[in-house]
Amino acid sequence: AINPGNSGGPLVNMAGEVIGITSIKIATVGVEGMGYAISINTALPIIEDLVAIGYVIRPWLGVGLWTVDEGLASRYGLAVNQGALITELVANSPADKAGLEQGDVIVSFDDKEITDIDDLIQAIRATQIGHEVEITYWRGETKYTTYATLIESPPPS
Prior knowledge:
Keywords: Hydrolase, Protease. One of its GO terms (molecular function) is serine-type endopeptidase activity. The protein is α+β, with helices and mostly antiparallel strands. The protein has helices at 40-53, 70-76, 94-97, 117-125; strands at 10-12, 18-26, 34-39, 59-60, 63-68, 83-89, 105-109, 112-113, 132-139, 142-149, 151-152. The protein folds into 2 domains: 10-53, no CATH class; 59-152, Roll (Pdz3 Domain). The chain contains 4 helices and 11 strands; from the N terminus they run E-E-E-H-E-E-H-E-H-E-E-H-E-E-E. A hairpin with a 7-residue loop joins strand 2 (18-26) and strand 3 (34-39). The protein is globular and about 55 Å long.
């Protein structure tokens, strides 16, 4: 059972095997509610990184992003109404080395359509460090393609 106060504890099956980590319970008065857990298959690599080096290793592109929607596209005169708008670019990052710039809108990442920042974050996390990816983006009224090789995210400072 997932109860208030036991978030972060193990979720076990009938055989006593850890199958997840409890994360949150949503309940209203008089109703048991719903409990959520993170799969052990998702949590284990994170736990291993934390134990071994003290932080989580993730692939990194080196950008800050906003989701492009119709309102944002209209407000800033963007050529597309969905994608991931680059709002920040880290110097010497894979994105910088690939020629991406602040204001570019990423619409495809390694053949995956990007409609919002969640799509791009998931695509980056699914990519191996050192893998070269094809990125399609809009700059102004022109569509471009470039290539970037993802690196390990810098450790937290």
